[in-house]
Design brief:
By secondary structure, the protein is mainly α. The protein has one helix at about 1-125. The protein is built from one helix and no strands.
């Protein structure tokens, strides 16, 4: 009877140990599955991060290129504005010179007309009608 009780107690302990071992194996498998899923998620996050990082680097390079182009265009615009200003000054100078030349030519023409009139008068006085 004691032997039977000992065997039953041992059997109960063995069953409890097997149940505990099965539960531990199940828990270990669940932990391994979760670990594998987390590693997969981490790999996907790393891949996404590297992709997004490359996009940002490409965008930064493109923006730097645009900024350089804008700076060059601004420089060209300032240079053209300076040239335009110089040309306006030159046009103004040439216009003034032209007006002065016209005035001088008109004065010369008037003087020539007066000289011609005077010479005609003198000629008429010296050589009355032929």
């Amino acid at each position: 009877m004691i032997a039977k009780l000992v065997r039953e107690a041992l059997a109960d302990k063995e069953a409890a140990m097997e149940a505990l071992l099965a539960k531990l194996d199940e828990s270990l498998q669940a932990r391994d599955d979760e670990s594998a899923r987390l590693r997969s998620d981490l790999a996907a996050l790393k891949e996404d991060f590297l992709y997004n990082l490359q996009l940002l680097q490409d965008r930064d390079a493109e923006l730097a290129s645009y900024e350089a182009a804008v700076a060059a265009l601004k420089s060209d615009l300032l240079e053209r504005d300076a040239q335009l200003s110089e040309l306006r000054i030159h046009i103004s100078d040439v216009t003034s010179e032209l007006a002065s030349a016209k005035s001088s030519a008109l004065l010369q023409e008037q003087q020539q007309d007066e000289i011609l009139k005077r010479l005609r008068r003198e000629h008429e006085v010296e050589c009355p009608t032929l």
